[in-house]
User: Which sequence fits this backbone?
């Protein structure tokens, strides 16, 4: 009777709350109505709590609220006063300057072998020097990073986000200066710098700020029935010090790309920048160090190695480096693997590509021609996921060529500072020689040059004319070898045949990215899903990398391993498997049947019982298994 009265009192209290919430008249109701209202309110509240739990689990509302409050109330320091960027304009570039050269100069002056000479590819003017570091100096840098990492690895994600937000704040407020430095050191246009250097870097930071902690949280794993008393998960532990060998095509982004993911995952980072873009890399590296120092952390966590190939070799072989991330050519990538092999040091290789862009017969040419132009001539073609093979269906090929050749021929080329130009310079002069050899081979085998096809000698620097090449076939070197320059190679797909197109695209040693344009999204996806590439986009170009939650990388000669996305961030970590007891007081013991000293009859009987119990497919077999476990256990 007492419990009934207590239950009635509880129902009355709940019903009174509900009535006050939803009605002005909160007078005592009939007991049955009171009980019904109470039950309905309890059920509704329970449903709301469960729904909120699953919505939060799916959409991470709690995380978003935490990060929003963190960004709103946690002010980050300004580091502008700690960074001194050189003032860059086009006056010395356009006039040649007092240190300009008429032809490319060697990076190492025999009179000063300890220094790397830096030149602007747009004018060939000498813009400074950087140290040509020895193996001993590389090792000392790596050791400094290793020592700093011992403290950094214990920082919280909130502290790491603060450093990244400091970097973001600086980048956003210095877009012009950074783009100008990139233009001077690598010859790219300032718009190409904004798209390929600034935009991608800012998105990388935003993605890490928003998702990085979630991607590195413990990952629960299912356990089997035999281990139902255990809890299993994977944790992601910093590796130590990452060694980065960065290319020259995007000096700002390539400097920060792996530094961002490396330090966010708790590692130290030592970067070997390209000898061709070391001048700007020194300034960009100082931005990273300043962001650490202004937030109270040791700037030695990040180090920059400048020098020639021997400096990169020393980084690969350095005992203080725990993993290598290399971006470059397949040939050098093989040397990196060879150098890391004696130490069993893991490597991630991003080795470029020969990406295909496909225009099906149902596209509108006026809509896809701008994509062909951007895909082929972004960064003057010096783009690992740039379009190197343009597959155009036969029925629209002639109209496509007629519609695009004037656009290619009218691209403006020259010094990117102080001028409105569409294409800048080639970072390496020898790349112009390689491009010329590929174009000449194609022409000798029947290809047609509609415009371009040779060096641009009207400017002082290292320029190759934007080129439209059609009639490209599989017998030509340019079909399989990476161009990495401003060449649009048009390949005609016979009979508008999708299957033939797939075979032509896959007839390539590289496999990085690809794209298909069609009026039918399902058709584009059906074609692209058969490509042997690491990435594919339907009716778009280059957006894979702008979606930083996606892993970036390829297959075949394009390398292996991934960066970006959770896969890339976790590749900076040791994936450690953890098993603990699930229920307090319940732990595993070794049954006597399989303990030492061993009794074969008992051990086999007990073991076969386990196998039959957990993996047998009949109920009677499982019953017999339980009997055997009791008998032999």
Assistant:
């Amino acid at each position: 009777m007492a419990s009934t009265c207590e239950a009635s009192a509880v129902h009355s209290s709940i019903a009174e709350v509900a009535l006050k919430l939803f009605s002005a008249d909160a007078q005592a109701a009939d007991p049955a109505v009171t009980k019904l209202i109470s039950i309905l309110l309890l059920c509704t509240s329970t449903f709301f709590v469960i729904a909120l739990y699953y919505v939060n689990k799916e959409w991470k509302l709690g995380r978003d609220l935490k990060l929003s409050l963190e960004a709103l109330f946690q002010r980050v320091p300004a580091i502008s006063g700690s960074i001194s960027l050189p003032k860059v304009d086009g006056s010395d570039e356009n006039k040649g300057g007092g240190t300009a050269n008429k032809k490319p100069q060697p990076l190492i002056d025999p009179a000063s072998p300890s220094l790397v000479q830096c030149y602007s590819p747009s004018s060939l003017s000498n813009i400074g020097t950087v140290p040509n570091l020895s193996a001993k100096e590389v090792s000392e840098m790596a050791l400094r990073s290793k020592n700093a990492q011992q403290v950094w690895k214990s920082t919280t994600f909130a502290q790491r986000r603060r450093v990244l937000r400091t970097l973001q704040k600086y980048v956003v407020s210095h877009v012009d200066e950074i783009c100008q430095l990139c233009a001077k050191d690598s010859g790219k246009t300032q718009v190409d710098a904004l798209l390929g250097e600034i935009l991608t870097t800012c998105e990388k930071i935003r993605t890490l700020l928003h998702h990085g902690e979630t991607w590195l949280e413990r990952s629960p794993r299912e356990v089997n029935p035999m281990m139902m008393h255990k809890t299993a998960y994977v944790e992601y532990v910093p590796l130590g010090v990452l060694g980065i060998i960065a290319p020259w095509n995007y000096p700002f982004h390539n400097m920060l790309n792996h530094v961002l993911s490396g330090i966010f995952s708790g590692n130290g980072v030592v970067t070997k920048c390209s000898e061709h873009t070391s001048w700007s890399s020194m300034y960009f590296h100082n931005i990273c160090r300043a962001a650490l120092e202004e937030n109270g952390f040791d700037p030695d966590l990040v180090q920059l190695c400048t020098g020639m190939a021997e400096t990169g070799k020393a980084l690969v072989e350095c005992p203080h480096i725990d993993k290598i991330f290399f971006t470059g050519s397949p040939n050098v990538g093989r040397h990196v693997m060879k150098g890391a092999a004696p130490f069993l040091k893991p490597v991630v290789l991003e080795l470029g590509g020969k990406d295909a862009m496909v225009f099906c017969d149902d596209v509108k040419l006026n809509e896809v021609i701008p994509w062909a132009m951007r895909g082929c001539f972004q960064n003057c073609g010096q783009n690992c996921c740039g379009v190197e093979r343009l597959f155009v269906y036969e029925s629209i090929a002639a109209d496509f060529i007629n519609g695009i050749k004037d656009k290619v021929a009218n691209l403006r080329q020259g010094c990117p500072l102080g001028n409105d130009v569409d294409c800048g310079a080639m970072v390496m002069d020898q790349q112009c020689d390689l491009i010329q050899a590929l174009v000449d081979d194609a022409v000798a085998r029947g290809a047609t040059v509609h415009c371009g096809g040779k060096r641009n000698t009207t400017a002082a620097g290292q320029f190759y004319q934007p080129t439209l090449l059609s009639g490209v076939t599989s017998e030509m070197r340019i079909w399989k070898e990476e161009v990495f320059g401003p060449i649009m190679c048009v390949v005609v797909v016979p009979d508008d045949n999708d299957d033939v197109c797939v075979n032509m695209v896959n007839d390539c040693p590289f496999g990085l990215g690809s794209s298909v344009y069609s009026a039918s999204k399902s058709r584009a996806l059906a074609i692209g899903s058969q490509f042997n590439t690491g990435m594919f986009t339907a009716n778009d170009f280059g957006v894979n990398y702008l979606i930083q939650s996606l892993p970036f990388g390829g297959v075949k000669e394009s390398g292996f391993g991934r960066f970006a996305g959770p896969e890339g961030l976790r590749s900076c970590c040791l994936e450690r498997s953890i098993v603990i007891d699930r229920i307090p007081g319940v732990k595993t013991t070794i049954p006597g049947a399989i303990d030492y000293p061993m009794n074969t009859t008992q051990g086999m009987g007990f073991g076969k019982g386990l196998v039959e119990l957990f993996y047998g497919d009949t109920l009677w077999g499982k019953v017999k298994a339980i009997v055997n476990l009791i008998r032999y256990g």
